[in-house]
Amino acid sequence: MKLHVKLLGGATALATFFVPSDGWASSHREAPFITKNPKVDGTDVYAFNSYQPGRDGYVTLLANYIPFQDPTGGPNFFTMDPDALYEIHIDNNGDAKEDITFQFDFAQMLANGSGITLPVGPAGDTQNVAVPYIAIAPISATEDTGQNLFETYTVNVVHGDRRTGKSQSIAAVAGGTTFRKPLDNIGLKTIPDYDTYAAAFIYDVTIPGCTPPNGTNARLFVGQRKESFSVNVGQIFDLFNLQPSGTGGNVANILGAQFQGFDDLVSKNITTLALEVPASCLTTDAQHPTIGVWSTASVRQARVINPTPTFDNPTREGGPWAQISRLGNPLINEVIIGLKDKDKFNSSEPQNDKQFAVYVTNPTLPEVIELLFGGAGVRAPDLFPRADLVATFLTGIPGVNENGATGEMLRLNTSVPPTSRSAQNTLGAATCFDPANADTNAQLNLSRAGCDPAGFPNGRRPGDDVTDIEIRVAMGFLLNTTVAPSGQLPFVDGAGTNALVFEDAFPYLRSPKPGAPQVPPPGDPVPAADAGDLQ
Predict the structure, then answer these.
(1) With contact defined as beta carbons under 8 Å apart, do 61 and 265 qualify?
(2) How far apart are CA 493 and CA 502, in angstroms?
(3) C-alpha span between 335 and 183 (Å, rounded)
(4) Mean pLDDT, to the nearest integer, of 284-294?
(5) Which phi and psi (to 5°) does residue 89 adopt?
(6) DSSP string, 208-223
(7) What pLDDT, in 10s, does the model give residues 17-67?
(8) What does the alpha-carbon distance between residue 334 and residue 29 come to, in Å, rounded to a whole number?
């Protein structure tokens, strides 16, 4: 398709137009059916060699669920679905099938079995009445008598097929196989010190068949975190309703600095499943260091609404598990898979991705960008099939993270040393290519100044700006400029991120935004904005 529609004014210079990124919420509400099931909507997956000091040899796995959580979303806030199964899968032998699966199964219970009650009524005729809130007194790591709702979970590790393989329980080093999930960040009066409170729910764990290095322990955390993805959602979905800087009174994103503060998710939260596992427990051996990682969520095939619902049984569920959420590389289902196949993709597995290959070999995203911004000189790559995108998303990049499998998954070469937080480049492994020219495609050069091979698309860290990386690759960053004349433009969406807005320790993602911030006493100034909100 070469349809050049002039939608921008003729005077708009190429150097000042904004080209939209494909990071319009990494995998938030990405398919029609998943919008009906927000509790099992997987939004982001991260897999990276841990860069917390002293955690060499570990891989951190993060799977986020439940998109667009408003901190003020009471009174029930954002519990996980006790009727669903949440999973993180590992392919370590290059056949695009799971070899190791971590299964998270949640449960909810009311305090005292039926909830907190309060005596209401005149003396001698009081009634014990159940309260409607999930907390009625301040909560801390050591005081939860005012907590009315509790969430717990178990984690099994399955070797082999996720449904028929050998399943064993992950246990806390301190004992027990049932773990508690902290309350969401209701507000500073309910949970005055959320950082300390949530840290009490980080568990040292033992994983069957896994021996940690140097006497350390694997770690586990599940709980609400601040949204880790950055994107300018609103204007992008309004047909990329963006103007060059300073025109028409609308100073919007432009081609320029990555970090311009246009992040529509900055005030949202997310729920994170986090594991830190020795790399040696995820790979087959040191000669095969690359793993493929993806997350899923499944529900039972049959659901019947209970006409007389109870807290424990609002529905009756049964039958085999049916997968309805899937995520590996960011943004694939949003902007690569066609609308008619989005639900199908969510229910499929990497081993069957040949059926979706045309969306990668002949992508529509670059054509849409040309359609909207051709008047400013933008041209989609003119080379098919797109072997560069096949390598990025379906096979891995030779010399970086190729593992022999063909299937969409996030690939991590665990033998690549982590880059410290302060030294990370937001463009990750994309910085390790010498630029293409008119005759030559981009060439991998691990000695290139600024090269950061420990980042996306070699795994994914919280501070990797996958928005900018993927749009550049889609527009032909790896291709010679004869077939990809716009491939060397520094595309941005203005909602940049970097590692410094995240923590330097497991689980890396920051504490969630509180539902109610601290109200200053009369006469006191309003607290300054949190610096992390500027991401």
Answers:
(1) no
(2) 20
(3) 34
(4) 96
(5) -110, 145
(6) TT---GGG--EEEEEE
(7) 333 333 344 566 666 677 788 999 999 999 999 999 999 999 999 999 999
(8) 9
Backbone angles phi, psi at 15, to 5 degrees: -75, -10
How far apart (Å, rounded) are the C-alpha atoms in residues 32 and 25? Answer: 15
User: Could you tell me the CA-to-CA distances from 309 to 70, 213, 314, 457 in Å, in that order?
Assistant: 27, 49, 4, 46
Residue 105 forms beta bridges with which residues? 154
Is the previous residue joined to 75 through a cis bond, with omega within 30 degrees of 0? Answer: yes
What is the residue type of 238? D
Strand 179-181 to 218-226 pairing: unpaired
Q: Is 369 within 8 Å of 475 (Cβ atoms)?
A: yes
Give per-residue burial for 478-496: e unless 16+ CB within 10 Å, then b: bbbbebbbbbbbebbbbbb
Helix (H, G, I), strand (E, B) or coil at 321: strand
Distances from the Cα of 342 to the Cαs of 19, 27, 103, 208, in angstroms?
A: 24, 11, 24, 36
Angle at 452 between CA 476 and CA 394, to 5 degrees: 45
